[in-house]
Amino acid sequence: MTAPTTDDPRIDALMAEVRRAGGRVTAARRLIVGALLDAATHQTVDELAAIVRTAGPDVHLSTVYRTLDSLEAIGLVEHTHVGHGPALYHVGRMHPHLVCEKCGAVIDFEPAQLDTLREELRERFGFELHVGHFAMLGHCRDCASS
Q1: This model's pTM is above 0.90
Q2: In whole angstroms, what is the distance from residue 78 CA to residue 133 CA?
């Protein structure tokens, strides 16, 4: 596990958004955002905290939670629930996820791929589907074929 990036123009851009929203830019926030940006996959709070602590051992788990909540409130970070486990966090806009119930693979895809379903739900039931907060469960290609 390596320490998160802290010298990255993407972090600077996100911290500028935090300032515009009236938030404070702290070393802990930079570490948390760096850990999110460095991640190859979506991360749980515990995973993020472990990464952040490699560079900032004094950053408490409660700080990670509060930071993620504040970043989510201004639209910079999203979380999704992928089955029975903890929520996963990522930088960026809300998008749908497919989760394999067998191997745990998480597959991101574009919200537009659900446009037909969203339109039908809107027309038939007056229901507005939010596509990213919860994952759709099933089996990935590899697990379905085995």
Answers
A1: no
A2: 8
Query: pLDDT per position in the chain (146 positions), as tens?
Result: 777 767 889 999 999 999 999 999 999 999 999 999 998 888 999 999 999 999 999 999 999 999 999 999 999 999 988 877 889 999 987 788 898 999 988 888 888 899 999 999 999 999 998 877 778 889 999 999 98
User: Is residue 79 a contact partner of residue 70, using CB atoms and an 8 Å limit?
Assistant: no
- Write down the number of H helices and E strands in the chain: 6, 5
Check if CATH label 1.10.10.10 holds for domain 9-91: yes
Highest CATH level, class, for 97-145:
alpha beta
- Domain range summary for the chain, segments of one domain joined by +: 9-91, 97-145
- CB-CB contact of 129 with 118 (8 Å): yes
Helix (H, G, I), strand (E, B) or coil at 46: helix
45 backbone dihedrals φ, ψ, rounded to 5°: -60, -45
